[in-house]
Amino acid sequence: xxxxxxxxxxxDSLEEALEKAQVQLNTSKAKIEVKVVNKEKxxxxxxxxxxxxxxxxxxxxxxxxxxxxxxxxxxAEYLERVENTIDGTIEIINGKVVVKNPQCGGKxxxxxxxxxxxxxxxxxxxSEATIISAEDDVKIEAYKQEPxxxxxxxxxxxxxxxxxxxxxxxxxxxxxxxxxxxxxxRVRHEVIKEVPPPKISPREVITLLKDKxxxxxxxxxxxxxxxxxxxxxxxKVLIAEGQPPEPSKNxxxxxxxxxxxxxxxTSFSPYSRNVDLSVEVGEVLAIKSEAREGKAGINIFGETxxxxxxEDTQILTGDGVRLINxxxxxxxxxxxxxxxxxxxxxxLKVIPTYTVTGDVDISVGNVIFKGDxxxxxxxxxxxxxxxxxxxIVHGNVIQAELSAGRNITVYKNVISSELNAGENTLICTxxxxxxxxxxxxxxxxxxxxxYLKNHNAFKVTDLRQGEGHLVxxxxxxxxxxxxxxxxxxxEIINTSKFxxxxxxxxxxxxxxxLTGINPLRIQKGQEVFDIARVVEANAQKIQENSELxxxxxxxxxxxxxxxxxxxxxxxxxxxGVITSELLAGEDISVSSPMAVVRxxxxxxxxxxxVNELGSNANVISVVRISEGSVLEAQLVHPAVTIESVGGKYxxxxxxxxxxxxxxxxxxxEVEKLKAK
Length: 676
Description:
Blueprint: E1 7-11, H1 14-25, E2 32-42, E3 48-57, H2 59-71, H3 75-83, E4 89-93, E5 96-100, E6 110-113, E7 117-121, E8 124-125, E9 130-131, E10 138-142, E11 148-155, E12 161-169, E13 171-176, E14 179-182, E15 184-187, E16 189-195, H4 202-211, H5 220-228, E17 233-241, E18 252-255, H6 256-264, E19 284-289, E20 297-298, E21 304-305, E22 321-324, E23 329-332, E24 337-341, E25 347-351, E26 353-356, E27 367-369, E28 372-375, E29 384-387, E30 391-393, E31 397-398, E32 401-404, E33 408-415, E34 418-421, H7 423-454, H8 468-477, H9 481-494, H10 505-511, H11 525-548, E35 554-560, E36 563-566, E37 570-584, E38 588-590, E39 596-604, E40 607-613, E41 621-624, E42 630-636, E43 640-644, E44 647-650, E45 655-662, E46 668-674
Parallel strand pairs: 6-15, 26-28, 27-29, 28-30, 29-32, 30-33, 31-33, 32-34, 33-35, 34-36, 35-37, 36-37, 37-38, 37-39, 38-40, 39-41, 40-42, 41-43
Antiparallel strand pairs: 1-3, 2-3, 4-5, 4-14, 6-9, 7-8, 7-10, 11-12, 12-17, 13-16, 18-19, 19-23, 20-21, 22-23, 24-25, 42-45, 43-44, 45-46
């Protein structure tokens, strides 16, 4: 240590100098004062800086360290003082407080009021732990708790029930508990006597109910139970009940043909065959029951409760159905199959049925019918069956094509064929993304036109022959994808077996204006805006209609080398699926105990349930998973691949009980148990 009480340290950095000062002064950095007295740089190429500092212990810290050193210099004397330390105590005897002060530097005692206890020190009440000495005036006392009773009435929202809520609390006489001497005391009490509250009189309850306006349905026996009881705590008793109104009965429609359909299916197995249901002319299909007014009731306040008026309903009918008896009975106007169409609003129709008693072959030719088609034989190679309703084939479908507006049922096998159920819905599902994308691109085209027309370099004289030249220029340079998407959309429309959908007639005519050299014929930008408006409106209409359409299902026993598409479910009831492509808007089920899926592709909008997927020969099988869809399989072989926007997964081992789905964060998740 220098004469000035500091040390001098030289180091390559200030941080290093501080560390050296800490060691030499034997203290922490926080207690050191530093003064930099010199900095110099050394070296020609790699220049380094040298720092010289003065360091000393802060004045306050030095004084404190000296004091500690002085106090503890004689360790024997210090230990003797510590050993002779005696803490103060508090003792409670018969409600009196006895305090002893500490000795030799011991701690003073503290006192704290407990529950129902009042502590007063030198005339001031305390609420928390407080230090006291023998010189303080300390008084303690226990509170007296008076008996308490409270009555209240709770009424239900419908004003049909009232409950009397009784809350009783017994009074308590308490005294302070004794306490042995200790340094901290929390004063406690003990109950020496309980005092029940006064009993309730029946008149008191009646008066309370009248004050609340309750005059009807009062239960006297409940009042008696409340009066006679005197238990502590809360008690809730039903004290009055109104007379609820008898509800009105809404008009309802009973569909008689559904009972016939249910009774014709004696088995509820998913693999059982359906019975073809048909009706004759004049057969009753539905009966409407009339609405009936309910009866008024009365609430506990004596008010009359009028029931809600009944709602009327109608039998909504379509083709093939006639209403009689003031439109309360629906009968078949033609022979055929009764159906209820629509999801939210049901319309009763009778669909005429075209029946083929044998095979669909050269003697019959292609079958194209707006209603249902029933084939009691097979559909043979090269032939088509197109139906606006259901298609039911009791035999096989071999190298043929089936397209139905509703369901397709094949009781036997589908070999090297194409099946489409819910044709319109499938077409709309494929068209909707195109329409939305084209609409967005046309709006961007309009923005580009406006930008160019507002630009300083643009000359109005360039549009003397109409704005079509500008539209054609933008399509040829910046929006080449528009005519490409339109042509792809037209190609999808042309694949429909039922011709152009009514919703698309205006759309097709408008979109043709943006293909080939047609844009040159456009005179004003308003025409382009009209095209966008029509496309957008029809896209919205198609989306709404597809949400209302009832899903169409495909059911078959076995499928091989085929393409099957359904807007609803695809259900395979027998041996399974071999090297085929299945596309379902909702669920796929190939889950019977012996069913297999070997090769091909599966894609379900809902849940795909498969018993066995793939084969020992490592046949490539692909399952497409989208957001909201799930794959559940009992046994999966190697070479099976799951594809999704969230990733791709290929099985390398035989596994059991797998579940694949898209997680909330957009990743493909595969849960599995390895096979033994």
